[in-house]
């Protein structure tokens, strides 16, 4: 008797995992309609949790020192910001509060007594989304401000002529799990459905067949669904 191939063995293991979980499905069973919208939260403000990224635009204020303050300081590709007197300061990966402390520390070492520094993220250009599938120019795009699904697809120059607009998959990392939901872009364009908000790190895949190919047949752990995004097994 022939031994099963590796792919068949993997399929058997995945099927057994489904049985243990209670139910599993593939990406075509991602929730749609009201269920898909249920887990779309409002856009979070760029606040204490945001980590500064290359290309971000910052306002850096040094209290009582206008000559040392910067209105539009751009973080370089190397994650540096150039400050008067102290030169390049590495701040990528830091919160605004942490960056303030680093800059204040550098200024206090040689130039100022107990400097007070405030860093504000004016444009979080480092926040990005991925648009893939049946679009004219798939790629990685900066998320500057609030963005809906319709605008996100437009960043990739819109869907192709044969794109399946009724099956747009949004994949999101949430609570340590990769989750997915399906939306109807045609209905959104006609005003028949709300335009869901896209968040930093989201992946938008136009067309169910392309989503299945890109996700590699990943299983959806249905017991973790609730009313919103379906949880995908594994990472993207």
TrEMBL record:
InterPro entries: Poly_export, Poly_export_N, Soluble_ligand-bd. Keywords: Signal. Residues 47-122 form the Polysaccharide export protein N-terminal domain. The keyword Cell inner membrane does not apply. Signal peptide: none annotated. GO terms for molecular function: polysaccharide transmembrane transporter activity. Residues 129-176 form the Soluble ligand binding domain. This is Polysaccharide export outer membrane protein. The lineage of its organism: Bacteria, Pseudomonadati, Pseudomonadota, Alphaproteobacteria, Sphingomonadales. The gene is gumB.
């Amino acid at each position: 008797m022939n031994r099963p191939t590796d792919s068949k063995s993997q399929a058997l293991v995945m099927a057994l995992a489904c049985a243990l979980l209670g139910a599993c499905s593939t990406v075509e069973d991602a929730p749609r309609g009201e269920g898909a919208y249920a887990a779309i939260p409002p856009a979070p403000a760029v606040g204490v949790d945001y980590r500064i990224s290359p290309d971000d635009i910052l306002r850096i204020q040094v209290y009582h020192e206008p000559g040392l303050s910067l209105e539009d300081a751009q973080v370089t590709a190397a994650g540096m910001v150039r400050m008067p007197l102290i030169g390049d300061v590495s701040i990528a990966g830091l919160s605004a509060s942490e960056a303030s402390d680093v800059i204040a520390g550098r200024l206090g070492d040689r130039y100022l007594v107990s400097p007070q520094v405030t860093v504000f993220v004016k444009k979080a250009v480092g926040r990005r989304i991925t648009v893939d599938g049946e679009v004219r120019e798939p790629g990685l795009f900066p998320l500057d401000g609030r963005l809906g699904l319709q605008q996100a697809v437009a960043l990739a120059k819109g869907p192709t002529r044969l794109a399946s607009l009724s099956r747009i998959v949004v994949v999101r990392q949430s609570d340590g799990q990769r989750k997915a939901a399906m939306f109807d872009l045609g209905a959104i364009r006609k005003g028949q459905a709300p335009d869901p908000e896209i968040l930093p790190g989201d992946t938008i895949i136009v067309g169910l067949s392309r989503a299945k190919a890109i996700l590699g047949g990943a299983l959806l752990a249905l017991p973790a669904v609730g009313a919103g995004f379906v949880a995908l097994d594994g990472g993207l």
